[in-house]
């Protein structure tokens, strides 16, 4: 079962001993399409602060009640490293976050140095690793990697609204993202074709993305317009939502 990202926004987050805020965004990895973090707005509980929770912290999603439960206490969350959402998330920050909660890191070895972006038509094929063999150079490279922002973490909220083009012309924009409730992987993009095919919304898998221009907020598919027209139509009734 998949859920709608746009519907998930605003869901309340419940700790073991009380409410902590609501879902503001999801950060996903563009090398795998897997959601790495839920961005939580702590509202009036911790005014002006936002925290990140890994999907591993989710105990369950109640779509009817628009709520997510966690096995964490308010104290654990309050003591977690805060996040500045207007700055890239660094690996250094991720390491401190995972140490705080005792989560297993999803990165390791050569994979941390480079994977071909999934959001760009290259699938999951790894590029040749560039891990230095010299221990000193390797340590310096790892330190630099830890301190800079992770270029593969992307905001789901930002992607909604991106313009989408087929190989032979514009077709519309991203209306929503559908996320698998078990794996937390983005399974499909909901594309609104209203300016081309009024009233039609289609589903496109991430692997059909040929390129993504993050600066210009523009996506190009490896599909023609006839291919897009023949794609499965979006049916909200099949999606987990309130």
Write up what this structure looks like.
The structure is a single chain. With 242 residues, the chain is of the alpha+beta class. The chain is 17% helix and 32% strand. The strands form 2 sheets. Strands 1, 9, 10, 11, 12, 13 and 14 form a 7-stranded mixed β-sheet that branches. Strands 2, 3, 4, 5, 6, 7 and 8 form a 7-stranded mixed β-sheet that branches.
Structural class comes to alpha+beta
Number of helices: 6
Task: Specify the CATH architecture of the largest domain.
Answer: Roll
Which superfamily, in CATH terms, is the homologous superfamily of the largest domain? Answer: PRC-barrel domain
Residue share in helices?
10-25%
Shape: globular
Summarize the structure.
The protein has 242 residues and is an alpha+beta fold.
Provide key terms for this protein:
7-stranded mixed β-sheet, single chain, alpha+beta, 6 helices, 17% helix, 242 residues, globular, SH3 type barrels
């Amino acid at each position: 079962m998949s859920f709608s990202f746009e519907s998930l926004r605003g869901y309340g987050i419940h700790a073991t001993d009380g409410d902590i805020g609501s879902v503001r965004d999801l950060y996903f990895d563009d090398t795998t399409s897997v959601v790495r973090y839920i961005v939580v707005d702590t509202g009036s509980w911790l005014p002006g602060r936002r925290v990140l929770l890994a999907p591993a912290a989710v105990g369950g999603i109640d779509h009817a009640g628009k709520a997510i439960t966690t096995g964490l206490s308010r104290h654990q969350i309050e003591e977690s490293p805060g996040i500045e959402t207007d700055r890239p998330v660094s690996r250094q920050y991720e390491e401190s976050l995972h140490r705080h909660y005792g989560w297993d890191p999803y990165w390791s070895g050569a994979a941390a140095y480079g994977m071909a972006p999934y959001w760009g038509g290259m699938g999951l094929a790894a590029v040749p690793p560039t891990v230095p063999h010299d221990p000193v150079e390797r340590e310096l490279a790892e330190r630099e990697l830890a301190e800079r922002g992770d270029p593969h973490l992307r905001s789901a909220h930002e992607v909604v609204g991106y313009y989408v083009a087929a190989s032979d012309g514009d077709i519309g924009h991203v209306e929503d993202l559908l996320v698998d409730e078990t794996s937390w992987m983005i399974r499909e993009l909901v594309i609104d074709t209203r300016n081309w095919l009024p009233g039609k919304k289609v589903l496109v898998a991430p692997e059909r993305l040929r390129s993504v221009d993050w600066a210009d907020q523009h996506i190009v598919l490896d599909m023609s317009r006839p291919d897009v027209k023949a794609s499965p139509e979006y049916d909200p009734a099949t999606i987990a939502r309130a």
